[in-house]
Amino acid sequence: MDVIRRSAFSGAHYLDCKADKKVNMEKLNATAFIVPIIALIIIFILYMHLLKHSNNRSVFKRVSYLIIAFSFLLNFAWEMLQMPLYEGMEPGIQTTLFCALAAVADTVMVLLIYYAFGLIYKSPLWIKHLNYVRVILLILTGGLGAVLMELRHLDTGTWGYKQTMPLIPFVKVGVLPVLQFMSLPVLSYIISIYFIKKKSDVRI
Question: Considering the domain boundaries, does residue 107 fall inside one?
Fold first, then answer.
């Protein structure tokens, strides 16, 4: 789960903010790309495995593409809204680019979680059988991963919060980044499968 979460926030920790907690697009380093590359390799392997075992490959492909699209849009909007609560994140092109990178990394996590659950449930389109148990598992997976990675990055000084960021008691991590991964993965899946059902006469 830690590996999954690292991939999700790789866009954010591309930037070394330890010295002054300001986002500097010039401070990219090669090691920051290792985790997302590994995550993308895992995603490709899982995608090919699920595609091979899918009864409707075209629908599975479309669901995957829609998850990518909706996840990026939702996470980009969320990142833009919450960035004023982080140190050094002032309005501008630099912050927008940072949020776009973070949204790409968030999308990697969302897709990785979808494929991982597909492997567990042995169903490429497991989302069409969504129930309360699966929703709770998704929420817990995203929330726990978010807490662990926020703790890690706060400890290493990758980023910091302003006083306006609401914190979760005891663990002292931001409420918004945790809520982000408790809600947006599930929402991305539901919107994607709903869109497929509405726009296609193909039974899934």
Answer: yes
Structure-token pair, residue 202: 């193909």
Does 27 fall in a domain? yes
Q: Do 147 and 139 contact (CB within 8 A), yes or no?
A: no
The candidate with the shortest Cα–Cα distance to 115, out of 67, 169, 176, is: 67
The count of structural domains within the chain is 1
User: Is 51 part of a structural domain of the chain?
Assistant: yes
3-state secondary structure 55-107: CCHHHHHHHHHHHHHHHHHHHHHHHHHHHHHECCCCCCHHHHHHHHHHHHHHH
- Chain centroid to CA 1: 12
Domain interval for residue 109: 2-199
pLDDT in tens, 58-104: 899 999 999 999 999 999 999 999 988 888 777 778 888 888 988 99
Tell whether 204 is covered by a domain: no
Q: According to the model, what pLDDT value does residue 90 have?
A: 75
